[in-house]
Every structure is written in structure tokens, then in C-alpha cells.
Amino acid sequence: MSKRDYYEVLGVAKGASEEEIKKAYRGLAMKHHPDRNPCDDDASHHFKEAAEAYAILSDAEKRGMYDRYGHEGLKGVPMPDFGNMDSIFSGLGDLFGSFFGGGGRRGPQQGNSLLYRMEIDLIEAYRGCTKSVEIPRHELCSECAGSGAKPGSRPSICRQCAGRGATDVRMGPFQMRTQCSGCGGAGSVITDPCARCRGRGQVRVTRKIDMSIPAGIDSGDRRKLRGEGEPGEAGAPPGDLICEVHIREHSMFRREAEHLICQVPITFSQAALGAEIEVPSLDGAVTHVIRPGVQSGDVVRVPGKGMPIVGAGGRRGDLHVMLIVETPRNLSKRQEELLRELAELDQKNVSPQRKSFFEKLRGLFTGPEPESKDKK
What we know:
It is built from 9 helices and 15 strands. It has helices at 6-10, 18-32, 41-57, 60-69, 85-92, 122-127, 268-273, 333-348, 352-366; strands at residues 114-120, 129-140, 156-157, 166-171, 174-179, 188-189, 202-213, 222-225, 241-247, 254-256, 259-266, 275-279, 286-290, 299-302, 319-325. It is elongated and about 105 Å long.
């Protein structure tokens, strides 16, 4: 199923401001939050969909790529795993967490996991491979060790919340605790920021990472590299890098689970008399014997020449070969003579199968034979 337009998901215009996008997402997140909709798969889907739309449209760089190229422009761009609730809450939960019993700091949070979509060829999936990928991500600033403060200085306690990270807000008869807007829930503010990271505590870098792809991996399968995602808060571990593999279509082979399917042309004489033919496989051509009398469209099985089965100790699927009987186009004089002889024999000796076919065809136009008068 194709993805919906991100602006449509959030219900905003394409030229919407950051604040409009944030407000729209907050409303959808509260409406479809799993705490409010337990065991509701539809709400869960909308919750994840809104989180993904917000993550793209709230990032100026990703939004620009999406505006220019649509969903195709985001392929290969690492981003949080929006199929995982923990990843969504870790990355975006501060926007609405306080409305569901949250408020102050919940302790150091693990870094976000990143999702990277990788395309490989069928032959790479068949043999297994190692792919080097370049992952743009944030890392803790080495200048300030992730504190955001200039070396030699320290963050100051937030005066607005007195270091609690949360403030109490009265709404009619109710009092709710919400994240402090002065410090963003940190409980402290940086008055003398680090020159390298400008007070963020993190810098954006691009890392080259080798990803091992096992033989037999299927399209949509995921591989995880622990600790290669976004950095966690002080004292918390980093997130993971999740690589989702997609396999390009092959010009000759079609895959179904662990089996491979291909078509092989054969001549009329090979089909009629049987033959030893060469069948293509991802290991190279293999010899296979076909029995006499095969028909066009018949499928023969070559055991063990399909895809490796991950974790099955070297077992493989099968290769299914569909035989296509080709009608000769350019006949030599001798070939034409032989075929004319065969045609004459066919007219004299009609096989039961062929006779049955013509009897059925005649019945379509003449209707069933009338019953005998002697029958009661």
C-alpha cells in the first residue's frame, strides 16, 4: 500500500509554518495515543503515521527533499524506526508526554534508533555480502563531552522551574504538570555554550559503517547494529541502526519465499521426445532431463537450486522452471517436409485427447444430444 502524503496526514497546507505543523501533530498524537486507544490497531497505525510525517516535515533538510522529490527523495535517508513505539516515544514523546501523566525528567533517555533502507541485487541476496553505507547521525560533542557548555563552565539551574524540569499549570479546576518551557525539561540552562556544538551537546557527522547481509535474506527483512544509532542523553546508551533490505527485481528470476522461478524455451522436438536441457541458476547453468510429451507451461522442479534459507544450516529452496515450447519461425526445406509429414499423420491418427477436445467444442454450438425415445 502506497504511503499517504505527509501534509495530508497532518492535515496542513504545504506552506504550513513550523508551529502549525507542530500543533497539528500534537493534536493527532493525543487523539491516537495508545494510552487512550488500547488494543486499537487503527489508532496505532494513525499514531505511527503522524509521527513519521512530523519527523520529516519538522526537519528543514528532510522537508526540502520531500517537497522536491516526494517519498522517493527520502530513500536511503536514515530516520527513526516509525514501526516501533519505543523509538517514537524516545524521539518525539516530549511533545505530548506531559499530557499523559508525564511532566518532568524521566531520567536519561536512550538514543533514537535509525532506519536505513538498502537496495541490493538478487545475486547479492543469494550469496550474502557486506555493504558499506554512509550514515549521517549525531554524536556527542567531543569538545564539551556532550554537556553543551563551554569547557570550564557549567550549566546554570533553570530559574523558571528551579531545576525540576517541569512546571504546574492550572486549567480550570485541574492542575497539570507540564514540561518547563524555559529549559525544555532539562532543569538547567546553558549560559556559556560550547563553540563547537553551539550548546547542543551534539554534532552531526557522517560515519561509514559495514553492514553484513546474510545469504538468503528476503525483501523487507531487517538487520540491527546495536549502538550505531543516535546518541543517548548523558548516562544513557545510544540507539541502534536498523537496516531494512529491499531486493531489486531480476530480469530472469522471480522469487517466492525460498524458491526461484524462471522460464526456459524448448523446441517442439524436445517437448515431444524428451531431452537433456540446460537450465539457468544463480550458480550457473545446470543440466536437467525433461520427459517426453511435456506441454508448454509445464513446470519442472530442480531441487536445491533456490535461495538459501537463513538459519537453516545450508538448506536451500528449489528452482521451478516453466517450460515454454517455441514454434519455429524459419524452417529449412527438410524441416518443412518433416513437419508436413507429421501433419498428415495427425490428420489420419487423431489422439483420444484431441478427439475429446473437438467433441467438447462441437457441444458448445450444437447443445447436448437428444435422449433416446427408448429411455424412460
